[in-house]
Design brief:
By secondary structure, the protein is α/β, with parallel strands linked by helices. The protein is about 40% helix and about 15% strand.
């Protein structure tokens, strides 16, 4: 290709992978996470040679995606993951599905066999030719943008499109498929004056707000006497915590949060009502019943966030601010959340209003462990209290799925200056191990991973990655030697516990300490020992690992299980009062089915 322009007369040719790495660095990307392989090794070489980004090698591609996910959630920047073809590429899918469902901006760079071998029996062929499956059809449903880079020159067009798609509402993953020969090809780029890749560390500009919708929402808020705000993860994604707090003050509102958004409002503020939904606090339902209006800010209110609230929501006026329509009926103001919060706040009286009295996020009383095992297991409430006592207020917290996760969401206040992340998009076990490492490496802050032993056995060997890169991550494993949530479902829903979800006892702390001699690893027999071990980990500077024994039969604060405990208690009350029924709570809230 020839040209007479001065810029291109001075152009140079570089490998496509070198150009790609350079453009990502210009866009503010500091780390690339992944697992190597023959069809992605050239990109790793470019990252190593370039030096502007750090290449992090994970133990599994799922965890590599969650590292990029945790990086994105804590920095607001684009997370980048790289993987080779075949099984490596397919291992990306569940992690990308979580990022898609949770609206996390991630760019996946996926190696492919050389183009000349496709359709001719290439190893790990996923071109769609000669009977092979087409990788584009696999990745398209879990991405906002998916394209194959068929030739080197097309990257200059496809990369900006992919980055913009990942960072434009609704955010999510973008995928570029990179054949090996295309990665190695040389590309002509301007020596100077090149425009940076669009959609860097900040979000692409949003469209103007609908003024009619702004007026309708503002009018509804001015009419309302008592307001309950339920805030979601989009508040964090759009860096709108201050805007949310200002609006709550102007309204004199109570503020609840969704399970994946505990950090978007100060949990110690007098206005804080608690967590909404199936892992939440009864006070939220009480405030909703007393409210004239419910304002959803940055949440569509999916089932996990509205479980137990449907009847009260149906009797309350609802307005919603956020880029996507809610799952409940109400007045919706779409567009950029931060712009919407500011536009509505500007139309309210300027003086703060006190919020009405409320009970606050009192823990839900749940049955304790059976008496015969109380001396050998630490109750969740005590274990979480020990975590709270040791947790730095600028730390990040990543909470995994399961009984331990439900307890942490219900009981642990979010740190004042850090993220509190729960991956409820897909709810995949083991998400936190990679995500916590990605967050810690990106920010340099102490990061806590709270997970059960089931999640550890899935992806806990990423502890090795934390050790290799000296990441400041504290892994807290609540070990009940079971898939305990499954066991409780079997008991409540299927007439008994099957032994296949109960495991033989495992000493995780001893095993991890033996595998990684340099790791600060300990077992905790009680809450005091847990707190001491956590404080020691905080002081270490690098990774730490603490395991605490819990009971698989302890019922967590999880509304579907609470429904059954209430039914059992009410049945006993009915029998003891000769047929007089006492089941107001379970009738009022109804059974909530999740999963």
């Amino acid at each position: 290709m020839t040209t007479s322009t001065p810029e291109l007369r001075e152009a140079e040719t570089v490998r496509l992978v070198d150009h790609l790495a350079g453009e990502l660095a210009k866009a503010g990307v500091t780390h690339m996470f992944g697992v190597g392989g023959a069809n992605i090794e050239d990109l790793y070489d470019a990252v190593h040679r370039g030096g502007a980004m750090r290449g992090i090698v994970a133990k599994h591609e799922f965890s590599a995606v969650t590292m990029a996910d945790g990086y994105a959630r804590t920095t607001g920047r684009l997370g980048v993951v790289a993987a080779t073809s075949g099984g490596g590429a397919m291992n990306l899918v569940p992690g990308l599905a979580e990022a898609h469902a949770s609206r996390v901006p991630v760019l996946a760079l996926v190696g492919q066999p050389p183009t000349g071998q496709e359709g001719h029996g290439a190893f790990q062929d996923s071109s769609g030719r000669a009977g092979s499956f087409d990788a584009r059809e696999v990745f398209a449903p879990v991405s906002r943008f998916c394209a194959r880079v068929d030739d080197a020159d097309s990257l200059t067009e496809l990369l900006p499109l992919a980055v913009a798609a990942a960072q434009t509402d609704p955010r999510g993953p973008a995928v570029l498929l990179l054949p090996k020969d295309v990665q190695q090809a040389r590309i002509q780029v301007p020596a100077r004056g090149a425009a940076p890749t669009p959609g860097g560390p900040t979000t692409t500009s949003a469209a103007r707000l609908d003024t009619t919708a702004v007026s309708a929402v503002s009018d509804a808020l001015r009419r309302a006497g008592r307001v309950l705000v339920i805030a979601g993860e989009d508040v964090a994604a759009h860096d709108a915590r201050g805007d949310l707090a200002e609006l709550a003050q102007r309204l004199g509102a109570w503020v609840a949060v969704t399970p994946d958004a505990k950090d978007v409002f100060d949990n110690r503020d007098p206005r804080f009502a608690g967590v909404a939904g199936v892992m939440g606090h009864a006070n939220v339902e009480d405030c909703l019943r007393r409210a004239d209006l419910c304002l959803l800010a940055g949440t569509r209110l999916p089932l996990l966030a509205r479980g137990g609230l449907d009847r009260a929501l149906a009797a309350t006026e609802v307005v919603c601010l956020g880029p996507e329509p809610p799952f409940v009926a109400g007045i919706a103001l779409g567009g950029n959340l931060r712009d919407a919060l500011r536009a509505v706040t500007a139309r309210l009286p300027p003086r703060p209003r006190p919020c009405p009295p409320h009970a606050g996020p009192l823990p839900t009383p749940m049955p304790g462990p059976p008496s015969e095992i109380r001396g050998r297991a630490v109750p969740y409430s005590q274990a979480v209290a020990a975590v709270e006592a040791a947790l730095p207020q600028d730390a990040h917290v990543f909470v995994d799925a399961g009984n331990a996760g439900a307890s942490a969401i219900h009981l642990l206040p979010a740190p004042r200056h850090g993220r509190f992340v729960v991956a409820v998009g897909m709810g995949g076990m083991g998400y936190t191990f990679g995500a916590g490492i990605g967050a810690a490496l990106a920010t340099g802050r102490r990061t806590y991973v709270l997970a059960g032993d089931g999640a550890f056995f899935m992806h806990g060997m990423e502890v090795h990655t934390a050790v290799e890169y000296d990441a400041p991550v504290t892994f807290v494993i609540f070990n009940n030697n079971a898939h305990a949530m499954c066991a409780l479902r079997e008991e409540f829903l299927q007439g008994g516990v099957r032994s296949d979800d109960l495991f033989a006892r495992t000493d995780l702390a001893a095993g991890v300490a033996a595998a990684f001699p340099s790791l600060e690893a300990a077992g905790a027999g009680d809450a005091a020992q847990l707190r001491t071990a956590l404080l020691r980990g905080n002081a270490s500077g690098g990774p730490a690992f603490v395991a605490v024994d819990c009971d698989p039969r302890e019922i967590p604060p999880f509304l579907p299980f609470q429904s059954f405990t209430e039914i059992t208690e009410n049945t006993e009350n009915t029998e003891s009062t000769n047929g007089t029924e006492s089941k107001e709570s379970s009738d009022e809230r109804g059974f909530v089915h999740v999963g």
